[in-house]
Amino acid sequence: MKRSAWLLNLAAMFLILAGAFTARAAAVEPLANPILHGVGIDQHLNTQLPMDLPFKDETGGNVKLSELARGRPIVLVLVQYNCPSLCTAILNDMLSTLKVIPQNIGDEYDVWAVSIDPRETPELAAKKKGGYLRSYQRTRSGAINASAGWHFLTGTQESVTKLTDAVGYRFRYDAAADQFVHPAALVLLTPGGKISRYFFGINYDPTDVRLALVQASNGRIGSFTDQVLLFCYHYDPASGKYGLAIGNLLRAAGVLTIILLGGGLFLLWRADRRRTRRLLALVPPGGAAP
Q1: Inter-axis angle of helices 246-281 and 224-232, nearest 10
Q2: For position 281, what pLDDT does the model report?
Q3: What pLDDT, on the 0 to 100 scale, is given for residue 7?
Q4: Residue 183: exposed, middle, or buried by beta-carbon count in 10 A (0-12, 13-18, 19+)?
């Protein structure tokens, strides 16, 4: 009996270990998919985009990136319009964020959506723009210039490759699925087309995007509150997010402490001076106090 129990325990342990290794292999297998090799983003912060690249806008007109730059920061998003999954999530989450930040598309900043699939057409781009623009303007009635500031572009393979190379955006075509395998990100550009910030993944934080737009504009847009927030937060390129700037907060706290101490001393000095004047008023002219 003891020998049988020992064999049963050994068999059970073997099954448990085999299950663990199988689960581990299943978890790692998707990451080992060869189609994912080379897909990702290399941050090229402060890199100037080639603004002479030609594209077609949603009307089918020929435009260069330089012609779309209107002296405002730019939110650049690289997607495939026919993508049924990730690209839709990227555009939807970007839309949700842009609906709640205080700046308006076409007034304080512009948006460039660029297809990475050279087979896609201006007609498809126009359809995409119509749907997203209507959704945006339903909640932002004051954004009357949104249509002029939001562009859905298509281009040749050469233009797409030069743009994505400049951004550091690495993707691959999956022939079996007839889809592009690509990363998810928003790229913030300065008014002149230099890369200012990257936001990775989806679920873009409205405060992060708001602050990035203010920084990309070199402070030309945004309120006093935005400037204070920029002082308290700093951008972390590794995470693509803004975090508390402890050093700035400590300096601000030190300055505030000095101001409060100085103000308190001034009030005490004024109170003491008034008390002295009241006592002197009790002294008769030419005599001692009673």
Answers
A1: 110
A2: 67
A3: 44
A4: middle
Pairwise CA distance, residues 190 & 51, whole Å: 12
pLDDT bracket for residue 18 (50, 70, 90) = very low
Kindly report the number of other CB atoms within 10 A of residue 17's CB atom: 10
Q: What are phi and psi of 253, to 5 degrees?
A: -65, -40
Residue 228, both tokens: 């204070």
The two tokens of residue 204 are 């873009």
Q: Where are the domains of the chain?
A: 40-230, 245-282
Share of the chain above pLDDT 70, in %: 67
d(CA 220, CA 214) in angstroms, rounded, equals 7
Residue written as tokens 């708001």?
210
Q: Which CATH superfamily is domain 40-230 in?
A: Glutaredoxin (3.40.30.10)
Q: Kindly report, residue by residue over 180-237, the tens digit of the pLDDT.
A: 999 999 999 999 999 999 999 999 999 999 999 998 887 655 444 545 444 455 556 6
pLDDT, tens digit (0-9, with 9 covering 90-100), for 52-83: 999 999 999 999 999 999 999 999 999 999 98
CA separation (Å) from 200 to 43, 84, 91, 158? 11, 19, 13, 25
Read off the tokens for 171: 């993707």
